Amino acid sequence: MASRPGLLSDWPWTPLGSFKYLVLAPLVIDSAYSYATIGDNEKLLIVAMTVWRIVHSQVWISFSRYQTAKGTKRIVNKSIEFDQVDRERTWDDQIILNSLIVYLTKVYVLGTNTIPFWRTDGAILVALLHAGPVEFIYYWFHRALHHHFLYSRYHSHHHSSIVTEPITSVVHPFAEHIGYTLILGLPLVTTLLCGTVSVVSIIAYITYIDFMNNMGHCNFELIPRSFFSLLPPLKFLCYTPSFHSLHHTQFRTNYSLFMPMYDYMYGTTDKCSDSLYETSLEKEEEKPDAIHLTHLTSLDSIYHLRLGFASLSSHPLSSRCYLFLMKPFTLILSFILTSFSSQTFVFETNRFRDLTLHSYLLPKFSSHYMSKQQKECINKMIESAILEAEKKGVKVMSLGLLNQGEELNGYGEMYVRKHPKLKIRIVDGSSLAAEVVLHSIPVGTKEVLFRGQITKVARAIVFSLCQNGIKVMVLRKEEHSVLTEFLDDNCKENLVLTTNYYPMIWLVGDGLSTKEQKMAKERTLFIPFSQFPPTILRKDCVYHTTPAMIIPHSAQNIDSCENWLGRRVMSAWRVGGIVHALEGWEEHECGLDNSILNPPRVWKAALRNGFKPLLY
User: What transmembrane ranges does the database entry give (predicted)?
Assistant: First the structure.
């Protein structure tokens, strides 16, 4: 909100929260009914335009976040945090408002009259009215908004975002948007009154406004020098992202809407406009110090990525009812992503002290890792990512989720054996993950029950517990047999095969069945040691999250959640890679045969660098 919120700051449908699109339900129903009964498709076009504007903006969001994650031609090299993401969740409110205005105009002004598809005179009039009255009025209206009285009550809400994203462009209080609607609506209202309005001019003008708004706030420079060198006057008719970025960093310059001519006329052009444009164009892709390689989990996880829906990626992964309605589109998108993308790509950049940390996505879902046919393809993609990172001089690559599977690549050891001269260090993060689980077990615990697929982390946990005299109860004979092989003779007696479910502490991994969960006693504590959380079935029991740690306050550009983890929480496997890079350790931490990298040492290093255990 603004520093001193003024009258009509809140949107009328704010109390509806995520259900705000219900206000458009009458529009959609009436449009469908009119088309079915009398063949009126103009109302249906309003619905289509609403959908198009949402999709258009979302494409800009994804493209902008991808570009700024790479660092290519980035303008402002500062971070975005959760408070900005939360503040900008209302970006689509103006789409709802505009749709309602157009719909009401159609119903109460035009009535049964139809609008022609195209009129040349109307299109020319729209262009002239925008370049003249609209740009001029907006310029002075914008300058008025920077007066202390209006700025503190309204416009400061928009300027809370120093580092802009495309959707920042339309994040304003309701009253301010009323002013923008009146100004930007002048060309369309005029052509309507003159009888020269057309369907194409309405759609094209609204799309132009959305495009220019999104472009001006995308935080990377995309207009080439040739654009202005071929036609120098365009400098006064089309702004650049760097031009408007200066308005957000300097506040008192570059007030123009889309055409900088009025800033040049009235002397409010920032003196750094040209130099910032040049330096932004010259910025190359950022070279990270460490990379975390992860993959998609469920189908809906596409939208929870930082490149997906900002409002979803800023919260833990969970099912949403409206995503179910998008299932057909989700299936098409997932097919395109997994079938035509043959390499990993960056989707997030974080900073920790002097380190630049990138998160890369391998475009496969968890289900692909279960397929033998996909094994070779996935390994080639991981190997390619490692070798590419090696060329860039990356110090550490951590393998997240199933990218470090024992059957897939032996916890990453396959790549080290194949390329023994690798300078980049491969980290599976098992040491820290094991320590996180061990420190999650309540002090004074005498026995725990173990159930789940036996992994490198599981072996380390069981080994440590048995060495410290804690009984580890195992339900299945085959699991007991495998775990016994990794224990010294002096502590094998602490690994007990049992048929009882009475321990109050359960260490669980993949493979925990519904039946077994139901056998647990009331108030049992489930502590996962696997990459994926168990299904929560018991309301009378307590479930810890998967091994993870709270990141330090000094970590920057944290504006999305890692899968099902909370805000500013990272998986232990990811933290393990970061700690490896921070400490400058020279050894790899991967492979089952290699001894685990001194877990207490990794745990102490994580705490020393500001990471904290989760408290329950």
Answer: 122-141, 178-206
